Amino acid sequence: MTTDASHPPVRWAVLGTGAIARAFAEDLRLLPDAALVAVGSRDLERGKAFLDAFGGRGKVHQRVEDLARDDDVDVVYVATPHSRHKADCIACLEGGRAVLCEKPFAVDADEARAIAEAARRAGKFCMEAMWMRFHPLITTVRDLVQSGAIGRVRLLTADFGYPTSYDPQSRFFNPALGGGALLDRGVYPLSLAQLLLGSPSDVVGRAAIGTSGVDELETALLTYPTGAQAVLTSSLRSRLRNEAQIIGTEGSIRIAEPFFAPHHVSWTRHSEPVGPAPAAKSGPGGWKSRLRRSPLVRRVVNDVARPLLRTLKRDTKTFAEHVPGGGYQFEAAEVMRRLRAGDLESPIMTLDDTIAVLETVDALRKSWRTSG
Ligand SMILES: NC(=O)c1ccc[n+]([C@@H]2O[C@H](COP(=O)([O-])OP(=O)(O)OC[C@H]3O[C@@H](n4cnc5c(N)ncnc54)[C@H](OP(=O)(O)O)[C@@H]3O)[C@@H](O)[C@H]2O)c1
């Protein structure tokens, strides 16, 4: 972890005291140059308990406007439900705080653009907390793809789904809180595809809408100007494989479950082009060439021997990584590096990339509406 304890600590506030706020605050303790100095909670006692639990010393603010004006805070980690992100982020930015906002950054691209504009107006750092992009093995995958290690990418598949107990009031199933699989989980496959393939030129999606009115299962088929495709699925109800595969012209990469915070990645480079053996020349010849022309022998060679040889000759390399904590420390460390450098964005998760992902989300929702 490249953080720098020789500097004064970066002073963090956490807005919201829910599940992810706790996981993030726990990982913040792994960074010696980070300090938890404030919490935003609608409930004073809950806020105090949160500070106590995570070794923070400082204030509890019950109103986001007060947190935003707290000059003892350098950066606010926004961990409220998605439907609150726009208002919470803009309040913090206008109050003079840098912002790291949980995924999905907003519920649609218009909201995301409004936050980005507020950040630019205020001259404050702002980033989506798409922690996957800062995971060391995802960095390895990005570097492999960008260096041409699998040739040109032709297909990306990724899915993210775990059964979630049904509660129509919860942020997962409640439309008013931005519920649905696409916003909660689908943004991970989409952000991976955006990282590796850029923006799609065509977007088609289908969704199964549940009784509370949110998408419980959705699949996207994205097409890129290069001709590459991505097939991405997310679910609130089913356990999916939670893997990703990137298939290129010269190799492939498999990111094992959970692909958004992987422990294991394998890269395979094909050692020869895939295809049938060249046909044997016709005409008379000895028994060897007659044998090579035999349909049965050719089928055995093409369907069994050559694939087997390719498998044996395959150049496969695996990368394994067991990171301490939950893996949220990498995004926090990036925020601190950027703040110290005086940067307003991270090149790894730019605001434009975040907006582009939400534009795809919008296009998918439009596609659901126009499907028969
Ligand atoms: N990066 C990840 O791995 C990850 C994982 C899970 C969730 N997330 C994201 O993080 C955000 C929060 O998710 P979560 O699972 O932590 O949710 P959660 O457990 O419901 O917590 C959200 C917190 O926000 C505060 N809050 C403020 N206004 C609220 C409102 N109107 N309704 C409910 N809570 C409100 C609450 O804290 P107070 O009561 O103290 O005010 C609440 O505890 C979501 O956008 C989600 O997508 C990210």
Automatic annotation (TrEMBL):
Keywords: Oxidoreductase. Pfam families: GFO_IDH_MocA (PF01408), GFO_IDH_MocA_C3 (PF22725). The keyword Oxidoreductase applies. The keyword Flavoprotein does not apply. InterPro entries: Gfo/Idh/MocA-like_OxRdtase_N (IPR000683), Gfo/Idh/MocA_domain (IPR050984), GFO_IDH_MocA-like_dom (IPR055170), NAD(P)-bd_dom_sf (IPR036291). It comes from the Bacteria. Residues 10-128 form the Gfo/Idh/MocA-like oxidoreductase N-terminal domain. Residues 139-254 form the GFO/IDH/MocA-like oxidoreductase domain. Belongs to the Gfo/Idh/MocA family. This is Gfo/Idh/MocA family oxidoreductase. It comes from Paludisphaera mucosa. The lineage of its organism: Bacteria, Pseudomonadati, Planctomycetota, Planctomycetia, Isosphaerales.
